[in-house]
Specification:
two-stranded antiparallel sheet, 361 residues, homodimer
């Protein structure tokens, strides 16, 4: 391990200590940490522990409530609406998906929505909770506006991601997790820093012209993936997460990074389907394995080395990093340690050393 | 009206007479006719009455069962699995969505799947059934293989369309209805006939190379829309419709036009969400109207005359054709009248004339 490589356990302990110190209950701090470290393990470092500083900033500014009361506001046999109470999105979402799974196991399927919430991390974490229990899981969230509707140029829609996880047998589960924009806004920032052009279908400039200039694109709006199709899906995610839950939608939501003067007021929507109510579970997973293997072993397009099923790359990364540890880049490590120092908790290196000693005792 | 323009009522009467004569009960013939004529009214003439001859051929060849027994095979509080019994897809799907709506009205949400079925027409018909009752509706179906997985070149996935309808108040409902392929296979045939090239991202040839030659594309495979994202969604639709329902998936399904020696053995999946269980219905539809109006009135991209919400074009076409009638092209009219003659029922023109006399009496 290099000096910047940490075991998942050390990272989880570090993140948990920070969030507990920021006022979250131990249980809630553990939930948030697990979401973040799972994200790093899946190789999505942009959404893992690197996000701790912005969450901390928002909690300290009073924009996120560290001790939410996640009441069930409405409930029926297979639905519920949970109050996010302006807490960390991960906390309400974890509880919502837990309830959703429990209901679906009894009734065949269920959906639980969260209102008045904040950024919840990656969608796949929640859909995978269902798949781990042998259910098909879905997770939707709206986000702050970055994207123009099809044919438009105003930022009226978020990147509004969605995830669906389906359990397989011996093969990795199918885990779909996608933004409904062509790319994340971060890719424009990367292109700008590198001084390279972006493909023509990623964004429009402030006048609504397609642009290959990342700077002009950042001043304009991202485009939905697949034109009117991604636009439709982005709208659906905003309706399920924002409108249906009485949260804010599109242009009325707050940005995690951009709005340090208000809460995000976004919503989430979760759904679980109990496979056994449609088909014998082991028959289902056997057929999933067959389907997945046929796709992976099928003939490749020119220049393609391997065909992946959705989520397979992230699954393999997870297996690898679970053993080899997660590399935290210098800048993120510095920010995390600076935050730890301010909160009076041990640094990443100190926690890592302690856990190595503990594991050799 | 030109000689080829028919009122929806005449078309429905004509189609109903044909399907009844082919062995469907009056009730089932009425269901199929309503799906087809609604499709024509929405301007999707490729999937309307023009499809009657192929359905008739399959029924006469014994590949579609005209008198299915649509039993409920499995049932829980908010799920059911219905046997398509190799009947017309429209019949089982109509019954499935009816049951799904009824369950969702009681329990908050529901999903009903259909196994061992055939082509069901357009997805939007079924999702709109839910929206008309004030619920959010979803409809999925798998189809015969036309499309390669992302990175592949074998036809392992269908165009696997999905539809979601959300009720609005005074504005048209949001009706998303999309194939998960970039385009329908029909567009390749049109390009071939016109002798024009197709865009590079539509298809691969038999060797897995991107191609702009529609002939080579027809010998190869269509591509999913939005690359890996559309691929993920196509897989999801195949899993929900094919694998979950114990029907056939992807390469094992039969083609409506291509396989005149076997049944299609496809499946469908329907879902309904009762809005009132999450938010007061009138509040919801008011906010939908606000959202829709904001998008429609927002600034347009260069060269764009109007921003549409999903389904708005089809809604306007429906309103227009309901009054002005549906134009049936010469070739389709000829095929329909030829079929009518063989079955011993009046021609389109005769039925149309009768209904005009009836309406003036």
């Amino acid at each position: 391990m290099t000096t910047n490589t940490y075991s998942p356990d050390s990272l989880k302990e570090f993140a948990g200590a920070i969030f507990h110190k920021l006022g979250l209950s131990e249980e809630d701090a553990e939930i948030v940490s697990d979401v973040l470290i799972t994200t790093d393990l899946r190789g999505i470092s942009s959404h893992g522990v690197a996000r701790i500083p912005v969450y901390a900033k928002r909690i300290k500014l009073g924009l996120i409530n560290p001790k939410p009361n996640n009441q069930v506001l409405k409930e029926n046999t297979c639905t519920a609406l949970i109050d996010g109470d302006n807490g960390m999105g991960q906390v309400a979402s974890y509880k919502a998906m837990k309830l959703c799974i429990k209901k679906a196991q009894h009734t065949g399927m269920a959906s639980v929505a969260v209102r008045n919430s904040n950024h919840f991390g990656i969608n796949a974490y929640y859909s995978m909770m269902a798949a781990k229990e042998g259910l098909i899981g879905m997770a939707f969230t709206n986000t702050s506006p970055l994207m123009a509707p099809f044919g438009g140029r105003e930022r009226l829609l978020g990147s509004n991601p969605l995830s669906i996880s389906v359990p397989a047998g011996k093969e990795p589960d199918v885990v779909i997790d996608m933004a409904t924009s062509v790319v994340a806004r971060g890719k424009l920032e990367v292109a700008l820093k590198k001084g390279i052009e972006i493909p023509k279908d990623w964004a429009v400039d402030a006048e609504g012209n397609f642009t290959t200039d990342p700077g002009k694109a950042l001043a304009g709006a991202l485009l939905p993936f697949g034109g009117h199709k991604g636009y439709g899906l982005a709208l659906l995610v905003d309706i399920l997460s924002g409108v249906l839950t009485s949260s804010k939608y599109g242009p009325y939501t707050g940005s995690l990074f951009g709005n340090m003067d208000r809460s995000q007021e976004i919503g989430h929507f979760f759904l679980a389907i109990n496979i056994d109510n449609f088909r014998d579970y082991s028959e289902f997973t056997e057929e999933m394995d067959k389907m997945v293997k046929e796709i992976k072993n099928s003939q490749k397009a020119e220049g393609v080395a391997r065909i992946y099923t959705p989520g397979e790359l992230e699954f393999e990364k997870y297996q690898e990093l679970l053993i080899n540890g997660v590399v935290i880049n210098d800048k993120v490590q510095e920010e995390l340690n600076f935050l730890a120092q301010k909160l009076g908790i041990p640094s990443l290196q100190e926690i890592s050393a302690q856990s190595q000693i503990a594991s050799t005792v």
